[in-house]
Amino acid sequence: MSAFPTLSTPSGPIPDGAPHWNPQRQSQMPSQRYSDVFSRVDVPLRDRRWPSRRLTAAPLWVPVDLRDGNQALAEPMDPARKRRFFEMLVAMGYKEIEVGYPSASQTDFDFVRLIAETDIAPEDVTIVVFTPARGDLIERTVASISGIRNPVVIHLYTATAPIWRDVVLGRGRDELRELILDGGREVLRLAGDLPNVRFEFSPEVFNQTEPDFALEICDAVTALWGASPDRPVILNLPATVEIATPNVYADQIEYMHRNLARRDSVILSVHPHNDRGTGVACAELAVLAGAQRVEGCVFGNGERTGNVDLATLALNLHAQGVDPMIDFSDIDEIRRTVEHCNRLEVHPRHPYAGALVHTAFSGTHQDAIRKGFAEHRARAAAAGLDENQASWRVPYLPVDPADLGRGYEEVIRVNSQSGKGGITHLLESRYGVTLSRDEQVALARRVQQHTEETGHEVTAEEVLRILRELTV
Q1: What is the mean pLDDT of the chain?
Q2: Given 173, 348, 441, 465, which residue has the most CB atoms within 10 angstroms?
Q3: Whole-prediction pTM value?
Q4: How far apart are the first and last CA of the chain?
């Protein structure tokens, strides 16, 4: 009797041609029900250029936590939490923020009016509002921005992929094109003369839309809106539901980048979701492919598995020596604020921000980190530099925790998986106690026995107590 009776251990044949070292068998999963991305959408790019490019500068980051993130919450933000989140985004340095869907809820409408009637938005912050291509909803959206002194972007969207056209909208390509252009004309009629307003269009589910149709629609919209270098139009190309490996999305973005009309009058934007767990990779490769702007949420909140994670994207650049243009110098305050506003916890293993991401329990990792810290301190001293100015190359720590406002107390913690390196580090860093190698080995053996018996990690105080017991 299996310990897991609800699971069906794969028992089909081993595939023909499988190497002798791979005994995996065909499973009972109904994978034949699904088709691959190449069966669903053509990807015409062949002479791709993005693989030879490098990330050398941050794109324009646009957090959508207050709209896309908010609509995915079981308990959407009340006005106080929404304001707190907005003020944090401003303090971090974001210069373009999608603040809501004012035609969808009174709370969102009122928040846009708060921005119009107060000075909570610095004058260099662009306010983005979101609307579907429906006349009455566009009118409500334009009413919400009345009196805002900041730059404003009105973000118009419509789903364009075949399954959405057939099942959801019930419109063919020509009918949908006219629906979108009708919405674009209404935006232009109501807001075209407002000097502080620009426009954005998203062909929702772009990544499942025929490339020629996506290009046709986007070119028609930029022509309608009179896109120019002085008043560029944002074309936002969402991977609304992620269905392919990141290289496919990069090909789709590069195809648009190289074929769009009025390219010098277009800000090419992306909005990856994370259904396959590769949203960050999709965004990074999309920037290599020509994207200039990235929409996402600070820690990846959003529908289903979430939007792309802006914190991870930015700090990935930081870890490569590229200024992310956003301040993460108190990552724990940012995390606490996001958790408070979203009423969702950030996972302890979340890249950069999780409570455990700078913590090592493994003995081999601890030994390498301890030696890395010692080398870092010695190298900084030899160069006459403060430790926080010396180049960083400590094993297992991609960035210095101090860059993110964290100390080093939690970097090494001791449990049954730890070795003498971690135990020695605790004693040296907390109490200045140094031990001979024989003493380290004896203490490590006793600490491991203690942790295996209790099943718990030990604190520096407990390690010191065990040392004293050994030396009595």
Answers
A1: 94
A2: 173
A3: 0.92
A4: 52
